[in-house]
Specification:
By secondary structure, this protein is an alpha+beta fold. The protein is built from 13 helices and 20 strands. The strands form four sheets. It has a nine-stranded antiparallel sheet, with helices on both faces. A hairpin with a 5-residue loop joins strand 8 and strand 9. Helix 6 crosses helix 11, helix 7 crosses helix 8 and helix 11 packs antiparallel against helix 12. The relative contact order is 0.13. The structure holds flavin-adenine dinucleotide. Flavin-adenine dinucleotide (FAD) binds next to strand 3, helix 5 and strand 10.
């Protein structure tokens, strides 16, 4: 290690290597209990420095764990899967290296955040936007894409709208995916498939390479935008509402992503746990009912951002959605920049509340931090102005899974989740995102207070029980926390053997993010 550090100090300077115990301890904190220690933090400042770091690590057999934004909250934050890794913090490698307004893309380095792209596009007076997730504006676009995260807008399924990856392999070699291996190719940022075997997928949810550059596609800011708001209290109509949304998406009437949240998720945005009213957990039903009335929260609430090329097209879509959704909702209204159009129920305060998001906010690519407050739900102290989930002891364990886009599956999965999480005395925060016309991405937050003795263990036990129940019902996770890398059911084929072979071929010294999505618990000797 001493020899390796000597080399790196020469190459990157003293400040790029952090050994301060306090900084190491902070970086090893997640939103749930972990025991992994971080040996050191390396902070390269440019892409070629990333390559130096990897070459040195490969030569001296030092395990590296790359993070770009480190905001992987609910899945492990910046904590490595295995103990005693060096954290390779890529947040300083943060240039936007290309931008094209006509062909609608930006090419970015790992440290580039959602906020940075929004500000950059604003500075360019661009007519384009990036799909925005509900997490911190300071999360990394590359980090989110590599985890196959999702956002709002027509390009919500993030990894489906990226290409041209630059990858540092665990031995320090570099490859470019798609057409990127040809220096003269004019379609590197435009065409996903390139020519020959397509390698991009090998580097998302994996530990086979470090991405130092990626092209991300942008979509036009809609010429005419309206928001469709849906509220439903009668759970019996929930499956029919989901089916109606799927049909509209399949027909192409809904180009963006319909979103549905359960009452507890919405309530946690508006306020923290009502400790003054009860010390009991999970939240007693009569108190929940009162709070729902007070804050106009529905059992299910949903939003669809609807972009159209003109107000006339928008009006036609509004009429169609109104007809198709009214029967399955208790409140249904639409809002554009100037007016509210109520189809059913009384929108009350909501018109004023949502009017602002048409011109600014996540539906037009502006990242906002307002959902982060919901993770302070069980805290007894109020939310600070500067929220920091790891530092503030906010407990969060997330489960992400893919389910079929049918009302029956949405009903079955959400009932199972609610029963299991409430039996463990927590409140499930559930969101459903109609990510494609066939699949829903379902996100579950188990939210708790890490400062309460024993809660880390209780929440983790709840997580494991829930995962088992979901597996048994045929709903397999599609994104894993660091605690869950070896928790998937066994493969029925030679998938694991193939992953093992790939890992050993790409990374013979096992230096890159050991244990991350390589399912080594099932490897053969
Ligand atoms: C309230 C709340 C709302 C959220 N909403 C959303 C949402 O709407 N959509 C969503 O997708 N997620 C959401 N999340 C989860 C999470 O915060 C985001 O996915 C976030 O984008 C991940 O953090 P990051 O972008 O900083 O990625 P990072 O932490 O940098 O990266 C994630 C992981 O990818 C790997 N990695 C990162 N960079 C590289 C690289 N260059 N090369 C190789 N491997 C790398 C690392 O293993 C790392 O741990 C939410 C979380 C909370 C608490």
């Amino acid at each position: 290690m001493e020899l390796a550090l000597k080399k790196l100090r020469l190459l990157m300077g003293e400040k790029a290597i952090i050994t301060d115990p306090q900084a190491l301890q902070t970086a090893a904190q997640a939103t749930f209990g972990t025991s992994q220690k971080i040996q050191m933090i390396w902070r390269p400042a440019a892409r070629e420095q990333v390559q130096w770091c990897v070459k040195v690590a490969h030569q001296h057999k030092i395990p590296l764990y790359p993070v770009s934004g480190g905001k992987n909250w609910g899945f492990g934050s910046s904590v490595p899967v295995q103990d005693q890794c060096v954290l390779l913090d890529l947040s300083r490698v943060n240039q936007i290296t290309a931008y094209d307004e006509k062909l609608a893309y930006v090419t970015v380095e790992p440290g580039v955040t959602f906020r940075q792209i929004y500000q950059f596009l604003k500075g360019e007076k661009s007519a384009l936007m990036l799909s925005i997730p509900g997490t911190s504006p300071d999360a990394s676009v590359i980090g989110n894409a590599l985890e196959r995260g999702h956002g709002l807008g027509p390009y919500a399924d993030r990894f489906a709208y990226v290409c041209g990856l630059e990858v540092v392999l665990p031995n320090g070699e570099i490859i470019h995916t798609g057409f990127g291996r040809f220096p003269h190719a004019r379609t590197t940022p435009l065409a996903r498939w390139g020519v020959g075997p397509m390698l991009d997928g090998l580097f998302s949810q994996s530990n086979l390479g470090i991405i130092t550059q990626m092209t991300v596609w942008l979509s036009p800011i809609p010429k005419y935008l309206q928001l469709c708001y849906m509220g439903l209290n009668d759970s019996a109509r929930f499956p029919a509402l989901v089916d109606a949304l799927q049909q509209l998406k399949l027909e192409g009437v809904i180009a963006q992503t319909p979103i549905l949240w359960n009452d507890l998720k919405q309530l946690a945005i508006v306020q923290q746990y009502p400790w003054a009213k009860t010390a009991e957990t999970p939240l007693p039903l009569p108190i929940l009912d009162n709070l729902k009335k007070l804050h106009e929260v529905y059992t299910w609430q949903g939003w669809i951002g609807m972009g159209a090329a003109s107000a006339q097209i928008g009006e036609a879509e509004r009429l169609l959605l109104g007809e198709r959704l009214a029967e399955w909702t208790d409140l249904l209204f639409f809002l554009d920049e100037n007016e509210a159009y109520t189809v059913k129920g009384n929108p009350g305060k909501k018109v004023r509340q949502y009017q602002g998001v048409i011109k600014q906010g996540p539906f037009v690519g502006e990242p906002v931090a307002n959902t982060m407050g919901s993770i302070y739900w069980r805290k007894t102290k109020s939310r600070p102005a500067q929220m920091h989930l790891d530092r503030d002891g906010c407990g969060l364990i997330s489960l992400a899974l893919a389910i079929p886009f049918t009302g029956a599956d949405a009903e079955k999965a959400t009932s199972l989740i609610s029963r299991t999480v409430q039996a463990a005395c927590f409140e499930p925060h559930i969101s459903l995102i109609g990510i494609t016309e066939r699949e829903i991405d379902l996100a579950i937050f188990i939210v708790y207070d890490r400062e309460v003795a024993g809660e880390d263990d209780r929440a983790m036990a709840c997580y494991h029980t829930l995962q088992t129940h979901l597996d048994q019902a045929g709903y397999v996770l599609n994104r894993l926390g660091i605690q869950a890398m070896d928790s998937l059911p066994p493969a029925q084929d030679d998938y694991i053997k193939t992953i093992q072979r790939l890992k050993q071929a790409f990374d013979p010294h096992d230096i890159l993010a050991p244990g991350r999505y390589d399912f080594r618990g099932q490897w053969s000797e």
